[in-house]
Amino acid sequence: MSATNPAPSGEPPDFSELQRMAGEILGVDADRVQLDVSFARDLAADSLDLVELIMAIEDRYQVSLPPERLEGMRKVGDLWEFLMEQHGAA
Amino acid sequence: MTGSDRAGVRVAITGMGLVTPVGTGVEAVWESLSQGRSGIGKITQFDTTGYPTQIAGEVRDFDPELYMDRKTARHVARYCQLGLAAARMAVEDSGLRPSTMDPDAVGVVLSSGAGGMEEIERGHRMLLDRGVSRISPFTAPMMITDVAAGLVAIELQAGGPNYAVVSACASSGHAIADGFEVIRRGDAVAMIAGGAEASLTPLMIGAFCQLSAMSRRNQDPTAASRPFDLGRDGFVMSEGAAVLVLEEMGHAVSRGTRIWGEVLGAGASADMYHFTAPDPEGRGAARAMRAALRKAGLRPEDVDYVNAHGTSTQLGDIAETLALHQVLGERARTVPVSSTKSMTGHLLGAAGAIEAAACVLAMDRGLVPPTINLEDQDPRCDLDYVPNRARPADVRVSLSNSFGFGGHNASLVLGRGTSVNAKGA
Q1: Which residue, among B123, B122, B374, B113, has the nearest Cα to B226 in the 3D structure?
Q2: What is the pTM of this model?
Q3: Does A36 participate in catalysis according to the annotation?
Q4: Which chain B residue shows the shortest CA-CA distance from A55?
């Protein structure tokens, strides 16, 4: 559970970085982390793994996932979509 | 050997796994113990600037991913990583395959004194620095002291009785005692029993510094743990794990596996004296030793070797010496007594198990490991402590002591395996 340095403000999220972070935290090869992949079914991530990943993403991109949206984070694409939304809103 | 108890159930030791500051694996550890080699050095796991004690026994170059996948390694505390590594080695050594057996057949009692101390410290720092929402969801399962037992059950598919026994520095002595009793009462065929500790953290080292319990011989680390020597100034904390596979004797014999040794008896008691100081007369310790011998059906003169708790503290070494006089009587004057903590340092909740393994190896190899750094023997410690050099000896029965803060005492009586092997039990 290493600390994550924040990305420079205003810099768009980088999908390859998301792949790397998710790969490290979920213990899978980064190239298995694709938009249409299910966290639970394909990457064997349980709810604790997902919370850890989201905390790392929040730290890296200085964003905050509202608790009510956690339930909707089923695929990697859902997380990516949230990040892009946040970047657009910034 | 009179190892049989009322029920006639005997308990063999059929596997051993060791991850310690003096080596990883049975042969590496034995090489160090038999050659009198210390595993103590400067603490490298954190910056000890300002700490009165800056030395410890670290397990160096440990790669958890040799024993578990990357994700598991990330989500368990270091004591669990060390414990799982030792458990895997022990089970492999035994030849048992719990996953192919009845799920109730093999259980786990894997203890720790402090558990995931580094995770408590990390989680607390996060709480203070960044608030409750930044505490990792893994902090709770990583910090508690019982998870190593659960992890071993999951990884090795051993579904029998499963828990940790916590009694500070007596934890794994009690774990082996409990594993022995579980098998004797018929609740499992085999038990994976031992201890794991990874307590070399800023808070733990600092807290023990404040107790003035640890050696401050920072300039000469390998000479710091010196049980029974006049120059001793406290114990040296170490990390590591030691696990034994205990197995019902008939089961072990029927599958033709190597029998390292036998658990003949176990005794436990409380000092009823003080949280941290031993009873200066050693009465509680003596009662634990007597109970263990009674359960084994043995007399003091049957004891061929004592692996002392011998932590290198002023009071503890004297109290244990007095206790051994009380229990062994005339035999105390001639029986070899050594403290392998002089080499390993004090593995706290894993100490009882590494020292049980040292007894098994002493019996197996016919060689008593020494108490190193014993240059100027304390006259109040007046036993034969096997100073500085290992000594050949025909050891059939060993007594191993473990005493913990809180006044917990655990003694094990262990028997040689080769006699069982020779007569086919």
Answers
A1: B374
A2: 0.94
A3: no
A4: B134
Dig out the tokens for A39 from the structure. Answer: 């966290």
Per residue in B163-177, pLDDT tens?
999 999 999 999 999
Q: Is residue B163 part of a domain?
A: yes
User: Among the options A42, A46, A49, A59, which is catalytic?
Assistant: A46
Rounded CA-CA distance B190/B199 in Å is 29
Distance CA B360, CA B342 (A): 18
β-bridge pairing B397-404 and B162-163? unpaired
- CATH number of the domain at A39, please: 1.10.1200.10
* Contact between chains at A27 and B138 (C-beta distance less than 8 A): no
Q: In terms of CA atoms, which chain A residue is nearest residue B74?
A: A1
CB B251 within 8 A of CB B189: yes
Query: Which residue among A27, A51, A55 sits closest to B71, beta carbon to beta carbon?
Result: A27
Most A CBs within 10 Å, among B75, B119, B120, to test the A interface:
B75
Which is the catalytic residue, given B80, B169, B209, B359? Answer: B169
What CATH number is associated with residue B89? 3.40.47.10
Q: Active site residue: B80, B174, B309, B381, which one?
A: B309
Distance from C-alpha of B317 to C-alpha of B200, rounded to nearest angstrom: 23
Structure tokens at B345: 């340092």
pLDDT tens digits along B180-217:
999 999 999 999 999 999 999 999 999 999 999 999 99
First to last CA, chain A: 27
**How many domains, in total, are found in chain B?**
1
Query: Distance between CA atoms of B247 and B98, rounded to whole angstroms?
Result: 12
